[in-house]
Amino acid sequence: MTKVQVIQTSAPKAVEAILKKLLVDTFLTAIHYAAGFRVEFSRTGSPPAPTLPMVVWLTMRSQWWVGEREKWEALLHKALMPYGGAEPEEPVQAYALMCLNGARIENVALHDNSTLTLVTSYAEMHLSGKDDTFEESWIFDVPPEVPNHELWSVVCSNTGELFGRQPVSEKGLATLLPSPES
Amino acid sequence: MPDFVVDANGTVVPVSQNRMRLGFVQAGFARQAAVKTPEPGVIYTVPTRYGPIEVRVMEGSISHPRRAVFTRAGTNDPVTMSGERIRGNISKQQRRALSHLEQNP
Beta strand A27-33 with A124-127: parallel, antiparallel or unpaired? Predict the structure, then answer.
């Protein structure tokens, strides 16, 4: 059994690397709404690393959209039904998530402002790194019933601060820790 | 700040974080450290008539006040202080207000 230690990092490149490990080659397999959207990504077959979870949750708190922003804005004005709620983007977001159901994540990009792009086999999904309401913009974690859930998480705060956690073997720890001059 | 707040279901919650923690500890509720960010905090699993909820008791930071955050156990889904689910298409600000309690020490 590999001895692991959880390390925490706020370095954007390191956080992006954690997100790639967690997400690339997973599929969007569940959509949940309870006072906000949460989606589930899961993988098939064997995980590329023994501690890598088979299921990951993404809780979305900040503004997010699918595809090009201009086209998204246009889509918002094509409501299929009257909506009297306080967050008019949410019905369109629900539609967009259903369109992404089953999509495979091909790549992940974390931008300077902590905006996150998930490149899927169907379309690109973008999540803002800033939010003016909740403490977090977006959260990746692992369902509590999934093995190794306590070892992994990535949180982007409402101000764009990043907090990533991942397990590393003692051997891998030396290669991950930043050198003094970096 | 008041000493206690009462939600629409009659659930009474102390605004004092120490008093809240003491109550949870005396009740024997399971707890774990909040580790996803560097901000110190403890997560208590609290039984309610809606099922278990997690109360994330956070000590505050430069960015955030001292507070308690109420979510459905095992998720980040916001719920009210009593565990009741948040209903309807209300604003994000209202969802936050229903699921967060700003506290004093």
Answer: unpaired
Query: Residue ranges of the alpha helices (H) in chain A?
Result: 12-23, 69-76, 89-100, 170-176
What ipTM is given for this predicted complex? Answer: 0.94
Helix spans in chain B (H): 17-27, 92-99
Q: Judge whether A92 and A167 are in contact, CB under 8 Å.
A: no
Residues A95-113 pLDDT 10s = 999 999 999 999 999 999 9
What is the extent of the structural domain holding A98? 4-150+158-171
When divided into structural domains, chain A yields a total of 1
Nearest to A59 among B76, B85, B94 (CB): B76
Q: Report if residue A22 sits inside a domain.
A: yes
For position A171, what pLDDT does the model report? Answer: 57
Q: What is the DSSP string of B17-36?
A: HHHHHHHHHHHT--EEE--S
Residue B63's CB: how many other CB atoms inside 10 A? 12
Q: With a CB-CB cutoff of 8 Å, which residues 20-79 of chain B face chain A?
A: 35-38, 63-64, 69, 72, 74-79
B88 in reach of chain A (CB within 8 A): yes
Which ranges in A48-180 belong to alpha helices (H)?
Answer: 69-76, 89-100, 170-176
Q: Measured over all CA atoms, what is the biggest interatomic distance in chain B, rounded to whole angstroms? A: 37
